[in-house]
Amino acid sequence: MSETEDRFNNFDEDIINKLYDTAMAIRNENHDNPNNKTIFSSVNKRMAVTDAAMHIAYILTELKDKVLVVNLDSRSTPAVEEYIHSKAKPNLFTTLRNSMFLSEAINHSAFEKLDIIHVEEMDEEELMAKFSDYNILSKLSPLKSYYDHIFLIGPPFEECENYGAFLELADSAVTVISAKKNDRQELNQYLQKINLFNVKSFGILRKAD
Amino acid sequence: MYFLKKNLLNIIIWTLALGVVGTAVNFFIPPSSTTYEEYYTLESGLEPNTIANLNIQFNETVNKASDNILVAAADGQSGSDILHLTITTEPGINYNSIQAQAMDILAEEGVVTTDSTAPNVYETQNDALKIIIILLSLLIGAGIGIVTALSNRNISTEEDIEHYLGERTLGTF
Fold first, then answer.
1. Residue A32's pLDDT band (boundaries 50, 70, 90)?
2. Contact A208 B172 (CB under 8 A)
3. Domain range spanning residue B39?
4. Residue B125: in which H helix or E strand, if any?
5. pTM, full prediction
6. What is the ipTM of this complex?
7. What's the whole-number average pLDDT of chain B?
8. In what residue span(s) does the AAA domain sit (chain A) (predicted)?
9. Best label site of B56, B119, B133, B151, fewest CB within 10 Å?
């Protein structure tokens, strides 16, 4: 780790240890399926999703993998920034308005192998319209040539009516739940949605509250 | 089967807890009847028909107070100066009032008492009602336990994740 990275490192060592196996599982899966894009999401645990995605991304960069995090939940931007200190302004659609290439929206972080794209803050209806207008999926896939892993941070499932728009961007999913307070009916509903979009579920990560 | 495995302990705890409540309630259930056994020393020996007459009088008066029990009954041997009086009460029947009426009847029959012993008191517990209360509480407890378990949709263990969601657990952080 460089001196700059060390200075900005807010990652929790305990969480890193606990998520190491998960990171390795994702790494192996993505090694077998190089086009894999993984969405991190939950029914209602926004912060836990950010924590999990960022720590796993960090573990993978420590293993010399290149990771791109596409933050599709504008309300998670401050939390993501606390980890990576890119000081990047949300620019996904702003960039696509002027350019054909999503790569131009990529911002570098304080960590050499960890890059970020934030989505701008907007209501769900507008977001869905922009997803459809700019065909994000087709622009996201070519980035796999530059990165070993692409992680998508999805907003909480219960906050979006059209969650399919996020799921269709992903090939695999990691679902984060609260270890203590959750609802299996809602979780089943969400997992069914994942299956519906043919997204492979890696499994469940439990956040101890 | 998994439902039982996961919730059996809770259901048992609820059942036992309500069972304890039922048992506590039983402490407040009055006895089904209380028998007061009294012995009186008479001034003179009993006449041959006195006991029969007393019981007829009791049947025509105080014994009409209950359909379930014999409220008052007299006993004694002809010529003996000891009269054995049994008064049985149940909820709603007052001992003092029955005793006073019985003493009036004795006086009407010309029986004069000179001395009496303190009554021996025997309580007959309402066992059937108590058993029903305990069984009902256990049943209600089991019911509450099952309803609580059914309404708990929380996933709390890795086994739950596998069983209810068909997913593997990647870890806990």
1. confident
2. yes
3. 33-124
4. none
5. 0.75
6. 0.85
7. 91
8. 50-198
9. B151
